[in-house]
Target: Aminoglycoside phosphotransferase domain-containing protein
Amino acid sequence: MLAIEQGAQVIERLIGAWETPFVELAIFESGNAYHIASLLVSYCEEHLGVSVAEFLFYESSQGAVVGLRLVDERRVVLKVHQPGQSFEFLRAVQEVQRYLVTNGYPCPCPIAGPERLAQGIVVVEELIDDGVYVDAHDPAIRRLMAETLAQQVQLTRGLVHLPGMRTSMWRFPEIDGLWPQPHSKLFDFVATSHGAEWIDRVAREARSILDVCSGELALGHTDWAVKHFRFKRGQVRVIYDWDSLARDYEPILVGDGARGFTMTWHLPTRLTPTREEIHAFVEEYQVARGRAFTRTERTLISASVTMGLAYSARIEHSLAPEETDWPEESCRGILACYGAGYFEA
Model:
């Protein structure tokens, strides 16, 4: 009971100020923090064979993520996905994670799941939280992130066609044949379409390139942002968020990583990379890869960068559709200035 009460306090600190806890209602059918904590404790007792000693943290975005210290002193993370997630996909992700861990790659090792929890699907992995969050505008950090992505892509070459593995979000345009469903109900692209037509035009130009591409498929972590990294003694200690894995063409995965690698909420820093930083990331990836991208591949990288910026610009617009004075480093500011040319082949 003490763990449940303490857990309820941790959960309430996050969701208590929200008008509507969309994720919790979808997963747990409740926004009551005590009820959610009870479900999490019960899961550990029934499926891990041990109770919870302490709730370490609770986060909520696309799903719910909770860090726990168990009574046997193990420290674990429970990631509870929304009902629409696929069991087969999560099993594939765990297979990739285990393979990467076996090969010395810095990602958490899966422990249990996927299993049903309330209306959601839960997976359990080891909690690794030593190391620090850093600023990826540091050239040394940027280089490490580019090299680590190249290593991940190379290591998983033999797992590209793993059953259950999904293709990237750009392959599922559900809104106007252009956009995937936004990753959160906070972003309503349909209701805020007015005023965003110029963003859509830039995105359609990029999509016209992405939709006809061909070549060798690869697996890549599609939220390659420094917010998911911890560093220790100048090296990558751990990378989180492996349910962002997807299958697509390597240049598209690289463009997505180059566009988003600086994103973090952990430090007060610019969220987007400069043009020079995007080019440097791609060049450093090429060196780690061992061969240069062709002109056609660089065109795909450029389209991927543009599509990612446009999607983020649409998110910005959905949150503030009346805003017209955009910061230069915002995604709307970048698109307004450069259009589809932020990274040119």
Q: What stands out?
A: The beta strands are 52-60, 64-70, 75-81, 110-117, 120-126, 217-221, 229-232, 235-239, 245-249. The chain has ten helices and nine strands. The two ends are 59 Å apart (CA to CA).
